UniProtKB/TrEMBL annotation:
It comes from Lygus hesperus (Western plant bug). Residues 875-988 form the Tetratricopeptide repeat protein 21A/21B fifth ARM repeats domain. Keywords: Coiled coil, Repeat, TPR repeat. Residues 992-1199 form the Tetratricopeptide repeat protein 21A/21B C-terminal ARM domain. Gene3D superfamilies: Tetratricopeptide repeat domain (1.25.40.10). The gene is TTC21B. Residues 7-217 form the Tetratricopeptide repeat protein 21A/21B N-terminal ARM repeat domain. Residues 714-834 form the Tetratricopeptide repeat protein 21A/21B fourth ARM domain. This is Tetratricopeptide repeat protein 21B.
Length: 1205
């Protein structure tokens, strides 16, 4: 063990530690030679001579001892020449009498002195004379290790162990020669045998690190420190782990103790001290605290190693990283005085570049270095060469990356690997790649290499996320940003801003807003970054708030003049967006000022063309369309903005000149300039925009010819083929797209009525991403519970690995739970979705609607207020607040809310339909008419408008007009189904009702039940005995369904009345007497109360009838029937004045159009001696219905004489 330990520390260049291990077994020549050599290396020459002196006279080791003595004398400050002559003479005599074993020790000396060729020949001779020498074989193995011949080394160590299984030095050599995985198994066995030995633990720790088992390596380091509290290797590994994962605060105390222990244990080992600086400075991401701590290591190394080229170069590099240009220059200049000056000159050039940019002097220095570097294998110089030769930069930078990778792979993963890989230099190289597609690909590869090696490097992660965003890889960008925020720095402003940018690129502006808000709550300094205000402006733009958008973008311009600058690209985008916002606000003069300022700032850069494109848009808006086209035509074809310019030209042709040919020609020019698949796709999209799907298919197919394996392109072509109704070809394209298009293929098969095939497609590609579509398959088959199970399994598999997808799954689970009437579970699913995707307004709106549905009005109101606090113009939330007022029967507030919504957006059809409903229920239907007319002036043919007019006419008793209006919405996807339903209600009792029923196509079980309910009412309206009986059977079935219970109960009451079973009808309707009112069931429930009230009146239960009728009026002040029945009650009680008032209200609400009601009104006016009013009522009835003589005989002829008297 002693030899193994000493040899291990010698190889690790821990010479003081090796000397300590050699202190006990002084009689072993190998130990003595090893100790003597280490003593020389730490400048303890006299002790070195003493260590080998006893072995000079030993016949088996005299040659080696004499060689060692000569080596030691040559390292004295003052060389004793006479002593050297005596030693040389003794050496010649000893060699003449050398024994076999003496050859081994002589070979061992040459191995220590790194005379590998000499050592190899001597040991080979020794092995020939003594082939059973295990230690000779082991030493030959170590020679092969130094020569990087691992397989040859392994053979030697294996042979040595076969001769002596207890040869610990050979065992360590075998471990060193094996691959990291296999070696770890061997070292574990050694650790078990020697649990208190430190060296095997150190090697185990390094092998775990080589396998990138960071946690295991850290645990072994702690175990090592338990045995030896000041162990340098263990401290290095612990510090390295924290450093690589970005835990810099944890690194600092370890570095302080490490330097202290290094100073005590290895005071002369400047190479060990500088090795820490080399590794940690290259992996700390320029963290100021770590660099500050490393300065003490630099100072310590310079004290004892200022004569070393490596120390001077590393000191120069350190000072360069910390921005201390003068100190860096001095270090490099000292290094330049030594033999190999090229690296020093390269360092000086880097300093010059950092100070003055690519000046003429720096260019000359780079050219001089190119001439000096014969091998052309200096990565830093290759990067500098790329600055001089932009056309060759990608090739040069690729070579630099390859060299760094090649150098690093010569070492197992660890400190030496990181030094030679140089993550800090790789990041610089990544920044140096050009801003084009090829450059982005290389940059992506380089940054991935850095992040895989050092996942805690924030700068590398941020740059990686930027590139991933740039190439449209949102999934990987999300993963990278999550790594930053979850594992490195949760308050990093750049990560939050990039996340918001990612959501904007995905058109998820609400999530972008939530991300910006979350970033602000984590770090208030985020407002000091212009990107924060620019992204806020884009969110405001999406919300239609151009005033806020302009203010935010202006703030971005102001902040960009501070320390956190925008890039030229970002400045171009900022000014383009700011001018566009002014254009949308019709502030053309202000837009012109912005563009003038942008031109001055970006003159001479590529972004000047971005300003030109925005200027062209301004010209087009000012009416100078041809000037706009001329500006865009001036953008050269070699500009990255050429594509944007052609697209802008196409837009101007289509929007301002209505020129479809010019529109398509602009895209054709793109294809002529570069017939790439991307441009062919744009041309195809253009054809789709002008309704030329066949030409679009041709373009897409051409794009496919050069890119047949592109799954995304196959999907796109399939979508166009679906629009062309070429389903067979579309299915083929979807199949060619593999897993990419499997979901869309399944959805198409579902639409084509082939659910079995859809399920088969999804089964072929098992993935959680297919879960939503597979659930739809089961839903289509009527098995909603199975659909829920599919989503539950997918959610368990996805978990928090993809938060956005998990949120979508939860949202769909909530919808299915609602369909199953399991509202509590649905609420929990919505809440869980919000934990995955906080701030998702679509989920919040859905949850608020569900709260409303289950009558949790407070929950609904709180959620809506929360939404409106973030966005005062959130229409769905405002609509629900209005709906809440309606449900609470606060009709005045509901009216105010709906009118406010419509004042802002007159064509908000849902709000308009609700306004008509509220106007009706507040007995002020005419108040909705101005809003209907305002909407008609904007979109006179919109199906939503026809639907709203249909409601108005229906409620106003204008049935023919109602049918005509509803007919205008009949074929619409959104309004058609409800419009047909209402037409059936209007046409109840007519043959048209049955024809209309055939048009209703239910999409789920709930809609099927709704259709059955409506069909049953149509059957009752026929008054046919068999039809009524069939209706009663269906109503009885539906009465067990929560959704349709109220309507079914009404139907049963009406059916029993048709059969003359009033008592049975009354018993059935009494179930609804105390049923809570809800907007969804309002009409059916109110009709239940009216019918039951009528039965109560017939039975003489006036009070019970009155209570029910007043409840109807509370919710619907326009119920003429309720007032009529109240009039009947008052009339029976001989309260003629009161009866007259009720009948008058009913008469007015019916539009003075019901002669029977007019008769009752006139009669009660007569009985209450209000003769003039009675006469007026009679005359009104007779003017409309002259063939109604009963009222003249019974009332008018009696009232007129009394009026005269």
């Amino acid at each position: 063990m002693e030899l193994m330990n000493a040899h291990y520390y010698f190889r690790e260049k821990c010479y003081e530690a090796a000397i300590k291990e050699c202190s006990s077994n002084v009689g072993d020549p190998m130990i003595a030679l090893l100790k003597s050599f280490c003593l020389v290396l730490v400048d303890r020459v006299n002790e070195a001579l003493e260590a080998v002196r006893p072995f000079i006279s030993h016949p088996k080791s005299s040659v080696a001892a004499l060689l060692m003595s000569i080596y030691a004398h040559n390292h004295c400050q003052v060389v004793d020449r006479e002593a050297l002559r005596d030693l040389d003479s003794s050496l010649r005599n000893a060699k003449q009498n050398a024994e076999t074993t003496d050859l081994f020790y002589e070979g061992f000396y040459h191995y220590l002195a790194r005379n590998h060729g000499k050592a190899q020949s001597i040991l080979d001779e020794s092995l020939t004379k003594d082939p059973s020498s295990s230690k000779t074989l082991a030493l030959l193995g170590w020679l092969q290790v130094d020569a990087k011949k691992q397989r040859a080394a392994l053979r030697q160590f294996t042979s040595a162990l076969q001769l002596d299984k207890n040869n610990m030095d050979a065992l360590m050599g075998e471990i060193y020669s094996l691959g990291p995985v296999e070696a770890l198994g061997k070292v574990n066995a050694l650790v078990v045998k020697q649990p208190k030995a430190v060296v095997p633990l150190i090697e185990k720790m390094k092998l775990q690190l080589a396998n990138r088992q960071w946690d295991n390596a850290a645990d072994t380091a702690l175990r090592t420190l338990g045995l030896q509290a000041d162990n340098i290797s263990a401290q290095e590994v612990r510090a390295l782990k924290f450093l690589v994962f970005g835990k810099y605060d944890e690194v600092l105390p370890i570095l302080r103790k490490l330097l202290s222990d290094m100073t005590k244990q290895e005071p002369k080992a400047y190479w060990k001290t500088m090795r820490v600086v080399s590794a940690f400075s290259r992996c700390c991401g320029n963290n100021s605290s770590v660099l500050s701590e490393l300065e003490n290591f630099v100072k310590r190394a310079m004290k004892t190693g200022a004569h070393s080229l490596d120390v001077l170069l590393e000191a120069g590099h350190y000072y360069f990283l910390t921005g201390r240009w003068l100190d860096a220059e001095n270090a490099y200049k000292e290094a330049a005085k030594m033999d190999d000056a090229s690296l020093a000159f390269c360092g000086l050039t880097q300093v010059g570049l950092a100070q003055s940019g690519l000046s003429n002097e720096v260019r000359e220095q780079i050219e001089f270095l190119i001439d000096l570097d014969e091998k052309k294998e200096n990565p830093e110089l290759l990067m500098l060469r790329g600055l001089l030769n932009p056309a060759e930069s990608i090739e040069l930078l690729d070579k630099a990356v390859s060299i760094l990778q090649s150098r690093s792979t010569q070492y197992k993963f660890g400190i030496d690997y990181l030094i030679h890989l140089d993550p800090e230099l790789l990041i610089k190289i990544a920044h140096s790649y050009p801003e084009n597609k090829m450059g982005e690909k290389r940059k992506l590869r380089t940054l991935n290499l850095v992040v895989e090696t050092c996942p805690g490097l924030v700068e590398a992660n941020i740059e990686l996320a930027k590139v991933q965003l740039s190439v449209g890889d949102f999934s990987e960008a999300t993963s990278t940003l999550n790594n930053i925020l979850d594992n490195i720095d949760g308050s990093n402003p750049h990560a939050h801003l990039l996340f918001a940018n990612l959501h904007i690129q995905k058109n998820d502006f609400e999530q972008a807003a939530a991300t910006l808000e979350h970033g602000l709550s984590n770090n208030l300094q985020i407002r000091e970054y212009p990107a924060y205000h620019m992204l806020s402006g884009l969110v405001a733009k999406h919300r239609g708030n151009d005033t806020l958008c302009i203010n935010s973008l202006k703030q971005a311009v102001t902040v960009s003049k501070g320390p956190n600058k925008l890039t030229k690209n970002e400045l171009g985008t900022l000014y383009a967006e700011l001018s566009a916002a002014h254009m949308r606000n019709k502030e053309l003069a202000q837009a012109a000022e912005d563009l003038k300022e942008a031109r001055e700032l970006l003159k001479g850069t590529e972004q000047e063309f971005t300003v030109t494109i925005a200027t062209a848009q301004l010209c087009a808006m000012e009416g100078s369309v041809h000037k706009a086209l001329a500006l865009l035509s001036d953008i050269p074809k070699n500009s990255p903005n050429y594509v944007k310019a052609q697209i802008q030209k196409a837009d101007i042709y289509l929007t301002y000149l209505k020129d479809g040919h010019g529109f398509a020609t602009s895209y054709k020019k793109l294809v002529e300039h570069d017939p790439s698949p991307e441009h062919l796709l744009l041309l195809g999209d253009a054809y789709m925009a002008i309704q030329e799907p066949e030409l679009a298919v041709q373009s897409y197919e051409k794009a496919m010819q050069s890119n047949s394996g592109n799954t995304k392109l196959n999907c796109k072509l399939a979508r166009v083929l679906v629009k062309c109704h070429q389903y067979h070809k579309a299915i083929k394209c979807y199949k060619n797209s593999g897993e990419e298009g499997s979901v869309e293929l399944a959805e198409l098969l579902l639409k084509l009525g082939q659910p079995d095939k859809a399920e088969q497609v999804l089964t072929e590609y098992p993935s959680t991403k297919k879960a939503l579509t597979l659930a739809k398959v089961h839903e289509k088959s009527g098995d909603v519970k199975k659909a829920l199970r599919v989503l539950k399994d997918a959610l368990e598999e996805t978990g928090r690995s993809d938060l956005e997808w998990s949120a979508k799954i939860c949202q769909q689970m909530a919808i299915y739970s609602s369909q199953l009437r399991d509202h509590n579970t649905a609420i929990e699913h919505y809440k869980r979705a919000l934990t995955y995707h906080p701030g998702d307004t679509s989920v919040q709106i859905a949850l608020a609607k569900l709260y409303m549905e289950v009558n949790d009005w407070n929950g609904c109101e709180l959620l809506c207020k929360s939404l409106m606090a973030k966005d005062p113009h959130n229409e769905p939330a405002l609509l629900m607040v209005a709906d809440l007022a309606l449900r609470r029967v606060d009709l005045a507030s509901a009216m105010n809310h709906f009118t406010s919504l419509l004042d802002r957006r007159p064509n908000y059809w849902v709000a308009l339909a609700r306004l008509v409903e509220v106007s009706r229920r507040s007995a002020s239907l005419q108040r909705s008419l101005p809003y209907l007319e305002a909407a008609k002036s904007i979109e006179p043919n919109n199906p939503g408008l026809h639907y709203c007019y249909g409601l108005y006419h229906w409620y106003n008793g204008e049935m023919q007009a109602a049918v005509q209006s509803f007919n205008g919405a009949r074929g619409d996807a959104e309004w058609g189904s409800q419009a047909v339903h209402n037409m059936v209600e209007v046409c109840m009792g007519q043959s048209a009702a049955n024809k209309l029923l055939a048009e209703l196509k239910p999409q789920n079980q709930d809609e099927e039940s709704g259709l059955l309910l409506l069909t049953s009412f149509v059957r009752v309206a026929t008054h046919d005995r068999s039809e009524v009986e069939r209706a009663i059977i269906d109503f009885t079935t539906l009465a067990n369904n929560d959704t349709h219970r109220v309507g079914a109960t009404l139907g049963l009451g009406m059916g029993y009345m048709e059969q003359g079973q009033a008592a049975r009808a009354k018993a059935m309707l009494k179930r609804m007497a105390k049923h809570p009112w809800s907007l969804e069931e309002a009409d059916y429930l109110e009709r239940c109360w009216l019918l039951l009230g009528e039965l109560y009146i017939q039975a003489g239960s006036q009070q019970q009838a009155s209570d029910l009728l007043h409840r109807v009026i509370t919710h619907n002040q326009s119920s003429a029937k309720a007032y009529e029945l109240l009039g009947m009650i008052a009339e029976k009680e001989q309260s003629y004045i009161k009866a007259g008032q009720h009948y008058l209200q009913a008469w007015n609400l019916s539009g003075d159009s019901n002669p029977s009601l007019g008769y009752k009104l006139a009669y009660n006016q007569l009985k209450s001696k209000r003769y003039s009013e009675s006469v007026a009522t009679c005359q009104r009835v007779l003017s409309v219905y002259p063939d109604y003589p009963k009222i003249k005989k019974d009332i008018l002829d009696k009232a007129l004489p009394r009026l005269r008297s």
